Amino acid sequence: MGVDHIEATVRHGGRVTADDALELYHRAPLPLLGALADGIRARKHPDRIVTYIIDRNVNYTNVCVARCNFCAFYRPVGSGEGYVLGFEEIFKKIDETIALGGVQLLLQGGHNPDLPIEWYEDLFRAVKARYPEFRLHALSPPEVIHISRLSQLSVPVAIERLVAAGLDSIPGGGAEILVDRVRKLLNCYGKASASEWLDVMRHAHRAGLRTTATMMYGHVERVEERIEHLVRLRELQDETGGFTAFITWSYQPEHTELGGDEATGLEYLRMLALSRIVLDNFPSLQASWVTQGGKVGQLSLAFGANDMGSVMIEENVVRAAGASYCMDEVEIVRNIEDAGFVPKRRNMHYEILGNPYFRTENVPRVLELAVARADGDTSRPPEINRYAARSAAEKKARLGGR
Ligand code: SF4
Predict the structure, then answer these.
(1) Does residue 366 have a pLDDT over 90?
(2) Fewer C-beta within 10 Å: the chain N or C terminus?
(3) Helix, strand, coil shares of the chain as percentages rounded to 5?
(4) What is the pTM of this model?
């Protein structure tokens, strides 16, 4: 089908095929892609509201056995730079988040072999006991798989236990590109194959959880494989309806084993618009200002995004790979309003919570994102000794901690 024909299909609310999407990627000018994506955004969100969430992106550990070659964040087991956050440290981060109007933690971390499911359950229960209304958007599908393997539980049982302890929703991280050829090249097939990632989301949706979905492009994949990724997400969304939003970003190459160059801003806008067109059953698309910067983040609102994501407060993973952008609530709202939209705070379910928090509450400006821990602080949290370790290094350390 030619571009004109596909354009007419999209303008009339029709669904594009993978071949149509490939044709659009290669032949449609960027302004046309943007106009088509913006038309879909306007149909789905006719009130010109652009949402954002105040939450904090906390990485509970950087110790990881997965060793994805695109990741600059992880440290191997036994590394002197490895850390696990203590429960008290996490409570302090929650207190700081609530003071800024925050409503949840986005809690993700490495695949640490020395944290059994009981550690997560105890943490979630402790958070819910102290902060009953506070939400835990936690554990991407590969982490759920890691926990289930470590504790020798099926994925549905692991999810059931984590939900019983306080898990509210699952972030769509670790998807990278949902094509096994690519996953093998990125050394992330072992942590989750494409079908395993999708299966965790299927089980989560069946258990009543809402989740997001992501795509990291611009490394070893072909354009056809990006589109295959989008189509697989669209198929699962047809089946379950459990995804709230989609977020895409470009691979951040600095300090990674894989190396290479970062995709450009225009490539990002092209992929964002194409995603909005293909994912016709996803209610929301987020702008990834944390990888693209605030200015491209703002432009995203004309290329299909209806949400500015999170104010983040803290960030460790993207920063480790060389990108460090910060926008607090004031700056996010300024960018939304300057683009002609109405800013509203939301929760993970995209329910509107209200107008900008800083307009009625006296909150400090945040001009730099916090980190998990101060540089060089690898202190051991006291409660860690209560849990069974798997690695030889950690078994020894825990014995010493008794
Ligand atoms: S991307 Fe996640 S799973 Fe992969 S090495 Fe980094 S922390 Fe580990």
Answers:
(1) no
(2) C
(3) 45, 15, 40
(4) 0.96
Is the pLDDT reported for residue 324 higher than 80?
A: no
Separation of alpha carbons 122 and 281, rounded Å: 36
The total number of residues shown for the chain amounts to: 402
Amino acid at 379: S
Q: Which amino acid is at 179?
A: V
Instruction: Identify the residue whose tokens are 């047809």.
Output: 238
Write out the two tokens for 343: 């800013």
CA 287 to chain centre: 11
Ligand 1 surroundings by CB, under 6 angstroms: 64, 66-68, 71, 73-74, 110-111, 142, 188, 191
Question: Do strands 135-138 and 49-53 pair parallel, antiparallel, or not at all (unpaired)?
Answer: unpaired
C-alpha closest to that of 289 among 238, 329, 258, 239:
329
State the helix-helix crossing angle for 265-278 and 223-240, rounded to 10 degrees. Answer: 40
Angstrom distance (rounded) from CA 14 to CA 4: 14
Which residue has its alpha carbon closest to ligand 1 atom 2?
110
Residue with tokens 């072999």: 113
CB–CB of 332/308 below 8 Å?
A: yes
